[in-house]
Amino acid sequence: MGSVISVVAYGETVAQAHRAVTQALDEASRLDALLSNYKPHSEWSEMNRAAAERPVRVSQELFALLQRCLDLSRESDGTFDISVGPLMQVWGFYKGSGHMASRTELQRAMQFVGYQNVLLDGRARTVRFAKSGVELDPGGIGKGYAVDRMVEVLQREGIDSAFVSAGGSSIYGLGAPPGEDGWPVKLNDGGRSSIPAATVCLRDESLSTSGSSEKFFVADGKRWSHIMDPRTGNPATGMLAVSVIAPKTIDSEAWAKPYFILGRVWAAQHKKPGFRIFMCEDSADRPCSWIK
């Protein structure tokens, strides 16, 4: 999935911990083969190639994940959208560091963006794209889904204290390290300072961060990040970083994007039960803060 995935685990014995971590990483590899759009023979990539031509029957696991993605798109006013694949390409963020998209490229790409172009048939368990050119990108949800599945594997193997990180942006703290209340995690301010903006302690909960400080380029004196607003086709502006703490990593990762795109007021109005949201705006006179 284009990320480094790491696991820290405490077990009753070294052998137990080693076995559990190995199986959790095996699960990450399995999901990479299922969901990665970097691998040409993953189920996700094969679906992308064929679904515009015919209904593609997919595994139950992939179908359920796609259903979840479309539900999230509807709930987030279309700001979470796995159909942003064409935008990631014209802005150069797919396997690259980014560059300005021309108006012609952008107009062409926007013809294929929109979750309404993804047609699911629950009875046949098939996926069909409404037009040729649609391309789905799992980058906004794949790591979170993988982290949750890895935690399930660890728990099944008797581990009740572990820390799973996918790229440092989607993480889960299971239980707590020996003698501690939880797993401490420092939140940055989106690159404005090297000093942490806040520190949180995770215990049986996840944290995901969407920010503009890691994948971005500078053009015309402005920072352009990899977080796309599917409604406009442009990188989202106004935020430096948004961190979401939630019971499940799939939710914290997915919802960090709409909160980043739509901003503080929308986030306060649409905060999910059990969520905590930390936002850093691209404004010198507005410090990072928690959403009430």
Describe this structure in words.
This protein has 292 residues and is an alpha+beta fold. The chain has a domain at 157-290: ApbE-like domains (T-fold), CATH 3.10.520. The chain has helices spanning 14-35, 43-50, 60-75, 85-90, 103-110, 142-156, 249-269, and strands spanning 5-10, 56-57, 118-121, 126-129, 161-166, 170-174, 183-187, 198-202, 205-211, 216-219, 222-225, 228-229, 234-235, 239-246, 276-281, 289-290. The strands form 5 sheets. It has a 7-stranded antiparallel β-sheet, with helices on one face. The protein has a 3-stranded antiparallel β-sheet with strand order 2-4-3, with helices on one face. The protein has a two-stranded antiparallel sheet with strand order 7-8. Strand 10 and strand 11 form a beta hairpin. The longest helix is centred in the N-terminal third of the chain and has 22 residues, at 14-35. It is globular and about 60 Å long. The mean pLDDT is 92.
From the alpha-carbon coordinates, what is the Rg to the nearest angstrom?
Answer: 19 Å
For CATH, the homologous superfamily of the domain at 157-290 is named as: ApbE-like domains
Record field, number of beta strands: 16
- The 3D shape can be described as globular
pLDDT < 50 runs, ≥5 residues: none
CATH fold assignment of the domain at 157-290: T-fold
Strand content: 15-25%
| Highest-level CATH class of the domain at 157-290 | Alpha Beta
Any idea what the CATH architecture of the domain at 157-290 is? Roll
